[in-house]
Write a structure and sequence with these properties.
heterodimer; A: 393 residues; alpha+beta; MetI-like fold; 3 domains; two-stranded antiparallel sheet; B: 400 residues; mainly alpha; globular
């Protein structure tokens, strides 16, 4: 009797949540699979009409186009995959240079925003308000067409700030040429690095044992510098001689010539991203409560020690996650290189795709590349974030 | 030993004259003074250079001559009235809204008088001048009506905003193919300039918002299949640059569709922008969803609401209200990002600049054109963020 009653009140299967869940997922998966197959079938049929089959074998074919800026020897007789690799290296170059400079400028801006000096404070927030509401693409095009291509022609160029030559063909900066003794010097630099590491670990141990906080990084760097300087002066011949850029005919020669495309892309990205990093840094510093600063002053730390030992470690924890996403944005935004004609991975892929007509392959390859770059950047930053995280009980 | 009132020293009076202020804020120490001097030099150098360029060197004729191209692209001149009509509709609604929700704000009439002021300051032709003045009149009428009957109009104004988008699209695109009708179809390849930028933004916002909310809900779903799909989509899209998605939409979307189906280039760009923006919106909405305390779900369940009812009536309204500022920030980003369609060959504000600069009489005037475009982008996105800040204050987001 009791048993039968239970049966009557039991939930019918169309209202049983456990069954509905499974059913819902099955329907969802079936729908996704159906749409995906449909798209795939259409794509295959479309490609068949054009007489193309999906394959990456074409990457081994000769490229037949030139690239202006190459990290390794490349000519029009090289293969497509080599062109792609050059683009990738250029993207990495722009990303790394951009991240370094925008961090420096961003920290300066963030600190300036907190300055008690009225003019500095206003100037920084004015800059921020201007940049944040601009379109990056227009900003980059402006730097390329409106600034770097409007520099004086090579013939009329005059050195600026010492030895920098600004022309519409590129910016020439002094660079070093290695001499015969450079390999030895490189060995000495390596020894210096080892020495610096030893100093680093000894100081860290000392700090742990005594509870003091020595300037570990500064001393390590000084140790490296000392070895490098000794090497520089002890060697019979200077390992590197300065090579100044100069005007030769209608072109620049010597030194290092930075193309207008590279300059426009990096300066645009740096100036743009720095504004956002400035906000991140400001928020991070402001997140450290005033009581912390007052307490550390009460303990007798001077203002430098307060900044280094109390404010900075705490601010860093707040800063790192949003800073990571700014770095990711910079890497992704470097794909706008196509607007200024800098041969980054996207621009090169676009050229390859135009030549071969293999849109599906090239776009998937580029997307995959950016995904890997993004994941690598965030993995690196997550690892750093883990390291500086508050050790919680 | 209790202290009497006399023992307590009065607070130090701060001298607040200009000299005192300057000593405190500009010349506190010698480093401060140095920074101030550097700052003043930077301000002087930048401002004087900019002014000299804007007033003497720059040739603004390129903007004046090409104003129509920059604003609406190749849109046929005899059909321009249609655009003015929906703009008038929007301004009417704006006037209404300012009167109803602005609570006697003084800037409202000034804002509405702006079109007329522009008509007198800048060298427009006779036709745009008339329209601009009409805009101010319409806006002021709307404002006046809103002042007189704020409560009665509230519902119709909200309804007006909701239907404004279909109206904009219909009026811009047209209704019938025959040339004789009042609103013949204007093909999208003739859309351009600020008009195209605006339409891309509006369509992107409108379609990416529901998709984004669905993805956010999917990511928080208890069904693993739905959750993993949402996570995969969001992370995939957020990991690649917008430009790759736009290229995919341009080149691969036609391949994905059955034979014979065609999608025009503007729609392809709209699809790309929508799919891209939805992933970012999903993350923002998820932030709001996570901020809702568990008690709200439990209370809704205790009241006997089903899962869907809980989401629609209890959780989403609260969650979305929490993230309004972030959503507006995302919409501003979307507006700025629409400029990327220039790279895939559409003639939006940035794309049309190339056309303008290709005219032989305006060679070499890149600075003028791009400064003007930047100014438009800056004004509109600054305006949006300003409105969102006011909205935040009014709705009391973050204040309980």
């Amino acid at each position: 009797m009791q048993y039968e009653q239970k049966r009557e009140t039991a939930i019918p299967f169309w209202r049983d949540e456990r069954i509905l869940r499974v059913l819902g997922q099955v329907v969802f998966v079936a729908l996704v699979v159906f749409v995906a197959t449909l798209i795939y079938q259409n794509m295959k049929a479309g490609l068949a009409r054009q007489g193309i089959s999906l394959s990456y074998a074409f990457l081994k074919n000769l490229s037949g186009f030139d690239i202006a800026e190459t990290a390794f020897p490349y000519s029009r007789n090289s293969a497509y995959w080599q062109a792609f690799l050059i683009g990738l290296l250029n993207t990495l170059l722009v990303s790394v240079v951009g991240i370094i400079f925008s961090t420096i400028l961003g920290v300066i801006l963030g600190v300036a925003r907190l300055s008690t000096n009225f003019i500095i404070n206003r100037l920084a927030s004015f800059y921020l308000e201007i940049i944040r509401n601009l379109s990056l693409l227009v900003f980059l095009i402006f730097w390329y067409l409106g600034v770097f291509l409007k520099l004086p022609r090579v013939k009329e160029a005059t050195p600026w700030l010492g030895d920098i030559i600004l022309t519409n063909r590129g910016v020439g900066i002094p660079w070093g040429i290695p001499t015969a003794s450079f390999p030895t010097f490189r060995l000495i630099l390596f020894l210096g690095l080892l020495f610096a590491l030893v100093v680093f670990f000894v100081l860290r141990e000392y700090g742990k044992r005594t509870g003091r906080a020595p300037l570990t990084l500064v001393w390590s760097f000084l140790a490296f510098l000392l070895v490098a300087l000794i090497g520089w002066f002890v060697l019979p011949e200077r390992p590197i001689v300065a090579d100044l850029a100069f005007v030769k005919g209608l072109n620049l020669s010597g030194g290092k010539i930075l193309s207008p495309e590279f300059m426009a892309l990096t300066s645009g990205l740096v100036l743009y991203t720095a504004a956002f990093i400035g906000e991140v840094v400001r928020a991070g510093i402001q997140s450290v409560s005033k009581g912390q600063i007052e307490a550390s002053r009460a303990l007798g730390l001077n203002s430098f020690q307060t900044l280094r030992l109390v404010v900075f470690p705490q601010a860093l924890r707040v800063i790192i996650p949003p800073l990571t996403s700014q770095y990711l944005n910079l890497v992704k935004n470097s794909s706008l290189a196509i607007a200024v004609g800098y041969p980054d991975v996207f621009y090169v892929s676009n050229t390859i795709q135009n030549q071969t007509g293999r849109a599906v392959e090239m776009i998937s390859l580029v997307m995959f590349t950016y995904l890997v770059l993004s994941l690598a950047t965030s993995a690196l930053m997550n690892w750093y974030n883990q390291r500086i995280k508050l050790a919680e009980r | 030993m209790t202290k009497t009132a006399e023992h307590i020293l009065p607070p130090v009076l701060e001298r607040s004259n200009l000299l005192g202020w300057m000593r405190r804020n500009l010349f506190g120490s010698w480093t401060d003074a140095l920074l101030t001097l550097i700052g003043v030099w930077i301000v002087y150098w930048a401002a004087s250079g900019l002014l000299r360029w804007a007033l003497y060197t720059a040739e603004w004729k390129v903007i004046v001559v090409n104003a129509r191209l920059l604003m609406i692209g190749q849109y046929p001149i005899e059909q321009v009235g249609r655009l003015w009509i929906w703009l008038g509709f929007l301004i009417f609604l704006l006037g209404n809204s300012l009167a109803i929700w602005g609570r006697g704000s003084r800037i409202a009439p000034a804002l509405l008088a702006l079109p007329a002021a522009m008509a007198f300051i800048f060298p427009f032709g006779a036709d745009p001048r008339k329209w601009l003045i009409a805009m101010t009149v319409i806006g002021l009428i709307g404002w006046g009506l809103g002042r007189v009957k704020p409560e009665a109009l509230k519902r119709s104004v909200i309804a007006g905003w909701v239907i404004s988008l279909p109206i904009i699209i219909l009026l811009t695109y047209g209704l019938s193919k025959s040339e004789a009708s009042i609103v013949p179809i204007v093909r999208t390849n003739l859309w351009g300039g600020l008009l195209l930028t605006f339409l891309l933004t509006v369509v992107g916002i409108l379609f990416s918002f529901p998709i984004g909310v669905l993805l956010a809900l999917g990511r928080r779903s208890e069904l693993p299949a739905v959750r993993w799909f949402s996570v995969g989509y969001i992370e995939l899209v957020r990991g690649v640059p917008l430009i790759t998605i736009l290229f995919m939409a341009q080149l691969m979307l036609p391949l994905f569709l059955p034979e014979g189906w065609t999608v025009d280039r503007v729609v392809r760009a709209m699809v790309g922008i929508t799919l891209f923006s939805a992933a970012y919106l999903a993350e923002n909405v998820r932030g709001g969803l996570q901020a809702i305390p568990k008690g709200q779900f439990e209370a809704a369940a205790a009241l006997g609401l089903s899962g869907a009812q809980t989401m629609i009536f209890i959780i989403l309204p609260q969650a979305l209200r929490l993230v309004i500022p972030i959503l507006v920030g995302q919409f501003i980003a979307l507006y700025k990002d629409t400029s990327l369609v220039a790279i895939v060959g559409l003639l939006d504000l940035v794309g049309i600049a190339r056309t303008v600069l290709a005219q032989p009489e305006f060679l070499g005037l890149q600075r003028e054109v791009y400064v003007f475009i930047s100014l438009i982008f800056w004004t509109l996105s600054y305006g949006m963020s300003y409105v969102s800040q006011r909205l935040e204050e009014r709705l009391g987001v973050g204040i309980r």
